[in-house]
Design brief:
By secondary structure, this protein is mainly alpha-helical. It contains seven helices and two strands; from the N terminus they run ββααααααα. The termini are far apart.
């Protein structure tokens, strides 16, 4: 045991472990790619990961019997997958609108879009997607989220 200057006792090596946890972060660009994502990890790729986790855990729950600790994490992962999918679709719709020459009042530049997408509200994201789909030169039926999907999102 090691006694610190406040009189507290710690197992040997505890201070060394604390030091390891507070080391400065690596300075190279790819140091945290597994946590923060990289060029290949856009919203849709991450949405797919959350979906896979939700399905895997749901399958485990079905196969091994009820576990009261799993429903909320399962639902959270499905929900987060939907949120990230909507964000990806919004980005793509904005890119298409800009490519088609959109010059309307709403700023849909990537920087402004990043600010607008700092929400977890699925209804707001679905409304935003509908607005952006309406900016595109698409058949009218494709300028909105279809009714069945809209019902599910609500």
């Amino acid at each position: 045991m090691v006694v610190d200057d406040t009189g507290g006792c710690h197992p040997e090596g505890m201070e060394e472990a604390k030091d390891r946890l507070s080391l400065p972060r690596p300075r190279w660009a790819n140091a945290e790619i597994a946590v923060w994502g990289g060029a290949s990890e856009d919203d849709l790729a991450l949405a797919g990961g959350y979906l896979r986790v939700a399905e895997t855990v749901a399958r485990h729950w079905i196969n091994h019997g009820p576990d009261d600790l799993l429903p909320l994490p399962i639902l959270y992962n499905y929900r987060h997958s939907i949120e990230l999918s909507l964000k990806w679709l919004i980005r793509k719709a904005a890119q298409c609108a800009l490519r088609e020459g959109y010059t309307g009042e709403e700023d849909i530049s990537p920087g402004q879009l990043d600010k607008r997408l700092r929400t977890h509200n699925i209804k707001k994201l679905a409304d935003c997607l509908n607005r952006y789909l309406a900016l595109l030169d698409l058949p009218e039926v494709e300028q909105r989220i279809d009714l069945e999907s809209w019902t599910q999102l609500n």
